[in-house]
Design brief:
The chain is an alpha/beta fold. Helix content is 18%, strand content 30%. The protein is globular, with a radius of gyration of 13 Å.
């Protein structure tokens, strides 16, 4: 956490109401993300974990749920379990 403090690491979990917006911030702006209390991976994350990036009109786009999110190609994400 101290290592990524200057980059303002964002903490979230799959039960967080702002989960999708935090992941989209990470995709768009390269903000590091810490996903806590992971027991099962939400299917929304499949495209992120599989790195399914497409080019649309000269920009990189990733499908996140029902939205297409522009991404900068850099995402630092950590997933922690309770164990």
């Amino acid at each position: 956490m101290n290592h990524y403090a200057k980059q303002k690491i964002q903490k979230t979990s799959f039960t967080d109401t702002e989960f999708i917006s935090r992941i989209s911030e990470g995709l768009q702006y390269g903000v590091p993300i810490l996903v806590q209390d992971v027991e099962k991976i939400d299917p929304v994350m499949n495209s992120v974990l599989n790195k399914e990036v497409h080019k649309v009109g000269g920009r990189l786009v990733m499908q996140l749920g029902d939205k297409e999110i522009a991404c900068n190609g850099t995402l630092t994400m950590f997933m922690l379990t309770r164990n």
